[in-house]
Amino acid sequence: MSDLALQLYEYNVWAHQQIFNRLKELPQEVYRQEIQSVFPSISHVLSHVYLSDLGWAEVFSGKSMNHALALAEQLTDQTVAKELAEMEALFLKLSERYTAFFEQKEQIHKPLQIENPAGGIMKTTASELVPHVVNHGTYHRGNITAMLRQIGYASAPTDYGLYLYMKKS
Questions:
Q1: Which residues span the membrane (predicted)?
Q2: Contact 43/87 with Cβ under 8 angstroms?
Q3: Is 54 exposed, middle or buried (0-12, 13-18, 19+ CB in 10 A)?
Q4: What is the pLDDT of residues 39-87, one digit of tens each?
Q5: What is the C-alpha to C-alpha distance for residues 38 and 100, in angstroms, rounded to an integer?
Q6: Which fold has domain 3-168?
Q7: Residues 35, 147: contact at Cβ < 8 Å?
Q8: What is the pLDDT of residues 143-166, one digit of tens each?
Q9: Which end of the chain is more exposed for a tag (fewer CB within 10 A), N or C?
């Protein structure tokens, strides 16, 4: 995997942790508070991001996209029901799985054929899809930031530039 793809993934892990750290500072009920937004609660956002990242890990490991989607559907209620600390542990465990996968250099660049359930096949590699995984996480961290602001709380800074600054200082 390119150094940039790995650095982006490491940034993604850091940014998720920033959100978890901020949520732990807030009243416990904020995590499940119903909010008129893209998702009904922050717990729903984190469940969605986790299940998407899990699905991509499954695809990178050779499973089909249909398998990944079925797994997400099967686990949605379970993950939404998890407490904040349990979700944080799931994210950390999944990041360890990604890191172990990235250490298998031959797997990262191995051609993948991903069948889109709606039709068509995409030929790619895990290395090419890492920016998608990171971008997806960034997008939904933005949802969480907006949701927190909507109910009167500041979020946590998760910008890539800040990550680089903190990493290099």
A1: none
A2: yes
A3: buried
A4: 999 999 999 999 999 999 999 999 999 999 999 999 999 999 999 999 9
A5: 33
A6: Four Helix Bundle (Hemerythrin (Met), subunit A) (1.20.120)
A7: yes
A8: 999 999 999 999 999 999 999 999
A9: C
